[in-house]
Sequence to fold (163 residues):
Amino acid sequence: MSTQAAEGSVKVGDQAPDFALPTSVDGAQRLKDFQGKKAVVLYFYPQDETPGCTAEACAFRDRYEDFKDAGAEVIGVSSDSEESHQQFASHHRLPFMLISDPDSALRKLYGVPNEDTQYGLLPGRVTYVIDKQGIVRLVFSAIFAPEQHIAEALNIVKDTSNS
Fold:
């Protein structure tokens, strides 16, 4: 497990790159829309309906009110289609938006590997906590610890909202 980003990618202290991509909820979403209003927990995951990704999404779902209470919005990102995201969100009652990144442009922009470099089979699983000012406060990468992403992110959101 690593809390540092890969070489050449977005790191703690960086301004988070803006984006505009289709969501599972209502049209396109921009990171800039949250600036000055809410922190954002942006998490990249390999694929809808796989065991680890489902566990991660459901863990975010189960703690979603805690994130909201701490002043953060959760956004999941994978290369799956908007339709796949809608089905995944409906099937697991996910209250947060999922963003479709079909050509991995957002994944590349943030420097999230298309394949986990250690295991070489799955796209990377990386969570970013971005504060209200758009500054990255956490980069957490762990392909086989999907539920740990939630605990790490919530701790940072709570710490940054109290400062």
